[in-house]
Design a protein that fits this description.
The structure holds 2 protein chains of 2 kinds.
Chain A lengths: L2 H5 L8 E8 L6 H11 L5 H14 L9 H4 L3 H6 L6 E6 L3 E7 L7 H9 L3 E7 L6 H12 L4 E7 L8 H15 L6 E6 L23 H7 L13 E2 L2 E6 L2 E7 L4 E3 L3 E4 L5 E8 L7 E3 L3 E6 L10 E3 L6 E12 L11 E5 L2 E15 L6 E2 L9 E14 L10 E6 L5 E13 L12 H7 L5 E6 L6 H14 L4 E5 H4 L11 H20 L3 E5 L5 H10 L5 E7 L2 H7 L4 H6 L21 E4 L5 H14 L5
Parallel strand pairs in A: 1-3, 1-4, 4-5, 5-6, 23-25, 23-26, 24-25, 26-27
Antiparallel strand pairs in A: 2-3, 7-15, 8-9, 9-14, 10-13, 11-12, 11-15, 12-14, 16-20, 16-22, 17-18, 17-21, 18-19, 18-20, 21-22
Helix pairs in contact in A: 11-17, 13-14
Chain B lengths: L21 H20 L3 E4 L4 H14 L8 E4 L6 H14 L3 E4 L2 H5 L9 H20 L3 E4 L15 E4 L27 E5 L6 H11 L10 E8 L2 E4 L14 E6 L10 E4 L5 H9 L18 H7 L4
Parallel strand pairs in B: 1-2, 1-4, 2-3, 4-6
Antiparallel strand pairs in B: 5-6, 7-8, 7-9, 8-10, 9-10
Classes of the chains: A alpha/beta, B alpha/beta.
């Protein structure tokens, strides 16, 4: 094939783009295949080939031949280790299509990268080493592709040269694969026998496989129908940015996620239920009469209604789900495990929503066998099916119906890392059903009757730091002044409310969450609530802080050095922990994150509990909690 | 076509953009989406403007993204003082034509230290006058997000770059501490002192860029078009003698030659190619039979193995 025809002179108007991923186990030849596609479609320049030849002798695994894998293994560290450790994107083009390839690592640990590559792919090439057949990894990759919504699969049976181009080997592998993949929901599985290293059936049909009558790989990639994936779906328009250059223009900028919209169409703002009609569809190249999935446009409406970033426009007759609880598949991507109950932020479409937590992990999925297993947390690269609650209602569709509006990422609110990705299955409870029952007698009235301002006084610190002693003394002093108080103590709640919880990170988070909710109810009833909990994690203390109003959470850090706590050891716990009889003991084999800006800071060494309690009382007076 | 013939943006307005092939429409919409995301999520974004073809496309897309509003951020040109003269002329014309804010930043310390691409060497010059200068400017103005026109097809370490590339305080890029990017859901959250580089053209190829320039009639620096220009040949590279600062070696005389540039930068570091391509159409045709990559002409990349990755870790784009 000559260069001019390969590269698409003039770019015909019908030319489109296919985004696909390649997946396979280590050594199945993914990088070699991509290098081969780039090379054979003349996307490799002479200077790159020269660099490649240099690298091949230095790092290559193919002797004196050019190692195409080196062409795509980007970062220095990877070239040295000989494995791909991140997602790399590659590009090549033919007259009919341009292609973007996500090269995703096949190594056991990198589910995260595969999911990343698959999230934007319309097709997957699943590589199988003809000598090895369908492996556990093959099944894992196929499952992830299916979960991420890929519907077209090319089964590339590679290294067919190493099995002497035998038809029966190919047929057996294809049979095995199809039997296994029948429940994965793929609409097409196209098997092709190839040799990435020698180019068999990549661009041209190979004379070595006379028995094969299907398309060669590139031919198929050019022709597979990937249109209509989002075209037939209901109109969805997540508002990205409000364009308001002057008082006369108010437009909603965004990209049509699915379906289409035309001038005069009735639309509804999914979350608020407000309706209007499309007045203009504005683009720099002039107004247009309609817009379809993938178009970046600016929509203006007939009516002035309240719309901001994060809202989703739809047709009143085809609304998305609006809910604050839903069930979803979650892929965990962070070293630090998912902790149910911990507050994360979700990015759903253009919405950024704080969660009320992952309320339950229904089960985790063994990616190799697809078995459902019980789980209390999800670790890096684990996939679970979870219930998620959000602090505000989200607008979405099921991922199966709409990849653009059914997906979300999970962000750790403290580190800002992207810790997970999710695919929504279904809403659990429609937001419209959860209106608050308005209470006639409010917190203020209840508190006024008691001549105090309700609040939570939260004592945190290591075991043995002196929290309970001081908290008790504060309670007595308040009682003596006729204040209405309640004391919640860590040990005591574990006898009843939280008797089902242990001391793992997940259980500690749930322990604090429950105590926080109880304390909040007591604040609502007008009480001063004294809480004494080790509460080692900043995230959970802040979660409780966010449950109540400004100024209603007073954090008291009882700071005692660990050596002193060990010396005191009032309950004999440190000696048990040190001898290994207690696991996950804070300060010994579980972390304590000290508060950085506690309202009250108490150093116990060299001071008496009496004086420290008095310091807390003084602080309450200064803050106007008590008279 | 040349830059001065394209002064009126309105003449480019066409009915509904339907002349673009689908793959370019998709790339265009994707870039616009990225830009709007930045405008919506960051306090003080800026667009790095290097005057080259990629910057021209990026700027054109930005104008489209925010129309009818003006660009919600300024352009920043990090000037090494060694750019081709025609680039500077084009830069100033472009800013005026589009009515955008243009910030030009020069590393004054570098100038005082006498850093230049000829006697200091390309590596030190790039470090001081480009990388350090860029970091200075970002800190000086407190920009929290900076658009760059780099593409994934340019270079191997770029192929793994995120669209939203996270930088720790000090503008440090750690390839192992980048956020996974799924779907079109970008994590834009940063803390004080952290910044984001945003590559809005990540998924474009060099050919896409030229086809888009052709179809959208985007003005570019005339140096991309073949013309007789005075050059000297050094180590097999054609260097254009753009001003008197380039010291000629004994016996060396600039000779007129029909050349053009595939990439533009500091003139003593930019290799020209022999070419007859004097129109965009001819450039696109030439591109399609090209035998060497565009970075071939960039002397700063070939200094050492994996030099792009190294530069990126230090804060280069």
């Amino acid at each position: 094939m000559d260069t001019a025809t390969m590269q698409g002179l003039g770019a015909p108007e019908s030319k489109d783009q296919l985004r696909f991923i390649t997946c396979g186990s280590v050594d199945d030849g993914k990088s070699t295949l991509i290098g081969r596609l780039l090379h054979d479609s003349k996307m490799i320049y002479e200077d790159q080939l020269q660099a490649l030849a240099r690298d091949s002798t230095k790092h290559g695994t193919t002797g004196s031949d050019i190692d195409f894998a080196l062409l795509v293994d980007g970062l220095e560290a990877e070239r040295e280790q000989g494995i791909t450790i991140d997602v790399a994107y590659r590009f090549f083009t033919t007259p009919r299509r341009s292609f973007m390839v996500a090269d995703t690592p096949g190594h056991e640990q990198y589910t995260r990268n595969m999911a990343t590559g698959a999230s934007n792919a319309q097709l997957a090439i699943i590589l199988i080493d003809a000598r090895k057949g369908v492996l556990v990894q093959t099944k894992r990759h196929s499952f992830i592709c299916s979960l991420l919504g890929i519907r077209h699969v090319v089964l590339a049976v590679n290294k067919i040269d190493l099995v002497d181009y035998r038809k029966e080997v190919f047929d057996r592998i294809v049979g095995d694969y199809v039997a296994f993949a029948s429940t994965l929901g793929f609409t097409s599985i196209v098997p092709v026998p190839i040799s990435a290293r020698y180019g068999d059936n990549i661009i041209d049909r190979s004379g070595n496989t006379e028995w094969y009558h299907g398309p060669c790989l590139l031919d198929y990639l050019e022709r597979v129908d990937i249109q209509s994936e989002v075209g037939g779906l209901p109109f969805r328009f997540p508002v990205q940015w409000v364009n308001r250059p002057n008082l006369d223009f108010r437009g909603y900028a965004g990209t049509v996620a699915s379906g289409n919209v035309a001038l005069g169409d009735d639309i509804v703002v999914a979350a608020s239920g407000r309706t209007s009609r499309v007045k203009r569809i504005v683009t720099y190249d002039g107004d247009v009469a309609s817009a379809e999935a993938g178009d970046a446009v600016t929509i203006t409406l007939e009516d002035e209604i309240d719309i901001s970033r994060g809202d989703m426009l739809a047709r009143p007759t085809e609304r998305p789900e609006v809910a604050d609880q839903f069930a979803a598949h979650v892929i965990w991507m962070d070293q630090e495990a998912l902790v149910p109950g911990r507050s994360y932020a979700l990015r759903v479409g253009t919405q950024l929503i704080p969660t009320g937590g992952i309320t339950a992990i229904k089960y985790k999925i063994d990616v190799n066998t697809r078995e459902h297993l019980a789980a209390r947390t999800l670790g890096l690269n684990e996939i679970g099916f979870c219930n998620i609650a959000t602090a505000l209602p989200a607008s979405f569709d099921a991922y199966e119906a709409n990849r653009r509006t059914g997906s979300f990422i999970i962000i750790d609110r403290y580190t800002n890392r992207t810790v997970g990705a999710g695919m929504i299955a279904f809403p659990l409870r429609r937001a419209t059903n959860i209106a608050w029952q308005p209470l006639t007698v409010g917190k203020q009235e209840r508190a006024a009757l008691k001549h105090q301002k309700p609040c939570i006084i939260w004592f945190t610190g290591l075991s043995g730091a002196g929290k309970s002693t001081i908290a008790n003394m504060v309670d007595q002093k308040l009682f003596a002044r006729s204040h209405h108080t309640m004391l919640l103590d860590g040990d005591n709640v574990r006898h009843g409310l939280n008797r089902d919880l242990g001391f793992t990170e997940a259980d500690r988070v749930e322990n604090i969450r429950r105590v926080g909710e109880v304390a909040k109810l007591m604040v609502d009833s007008g009480l001063i609530v004294i809480c004494s909990f080790i509460s080692p994690y900043k995230a959970e203390r802040d979660m409780v802080r966010n449950l109540v109003g400004d100024g209603e959470f007073i954090e008291v850090f009882v700071d005692t050095p660990i050596e002193e706590c060990v010396r005191r050891d009032p309950k004999g716990l440190y000696s048990k922990a040190k001898s290994g009889k207690i696991k996950n003991f804070t300060g010994i084999d579980a972390p304590y994150e000290p508060p950085l800006a506690a309202e009250v800071y108490l150093q116990t060494v060299g001071d008496s509990p009496e004086r420290l309690a008095e310091k807390v009382i003084d602080s309450l007076t200064t803050r106007g909690i008590i008279g | 076509m040349n830059a001065t013939a394209q002064t009126d943006f309105q003449s480019m307005v066409k009915p509904a953009n339907r002349t673009l092939p689908r793959h370019l429409r998709r790339l265009e919409a994707e870039s616009i989406e990225i830009m709007r995301e930045v405008a919506a999520e960051f306090k003080k974004p800026v667009m790095l403007y290097s005057i080259g073809k990629d910057s021209s496309v990026m700027l054109h897309l930005a104008v489209k993204a925010f129309y009818p509003a003006k660009l919600p951020f300024p352009l920043l040109h990090v000037d090494t003082t060694w750019k081709f003269r025609e680039m500077i002329t084009f830069r100033d014309q472009t800013a005026k034509r589009l009515g955008v804010d243009l910030i030009v930043h020069i590393n004054k310390e570098g100038i005082e230290r006498g850093i230049n691409p000829i006697t200091s060497g390309s590596s030190l010059h790039t470090q001081v006058m480009k990388t350090d200068a860029l970091k200075q400017a970002l800190d000086l103005y407190g920009f929290d997000a900076a658009f760059g026109g780099a593409r994934r097809d340019e270079e191997k370490s770029r192929a793994k770059e995120r669209i939203f590339s996270f930088r720790s305080p000090g503008h440090i890029w750690d390839p192992r501490n980048q956020r996974p990017e799924l779907w079109n859901l970008f994590n834009t959250r940063i803390r004080q002192g952290e910044t984001m580089r945003v590559f809005a053209l990540s998924n474009w190829t060099e050919l896409d860029v030229w086809e888009y320039i052709m179809l959208e009639k985007i003005p570019v620096v005339p140096l991309y078009f073949a013309k007789q220009r005075p050059v000297v040949r050094r180590n097999g590279t054609l260097i254009m003698v753009d001003d008197e600062r380039l010291p000629l070696e004994p016996g060396e005389t600039p000779e007129p030659r029909m050349i053009r540039f595939r990439t533009l930068g500091c003139y003593p570091l930019s290799g020209a190619i022999d070419s007859e391509a004097a129109t965009i159409e001819e450039i696109v045709a030439e591109m399609q039979v090209a035998k060497v990559s565009e970075r071939q002409g960039r002397l700063i990349d070939s200094d050492e193995a994996a030099s792009m990755e190294k530069k990126k870790r230090e804060g280069y784009f």
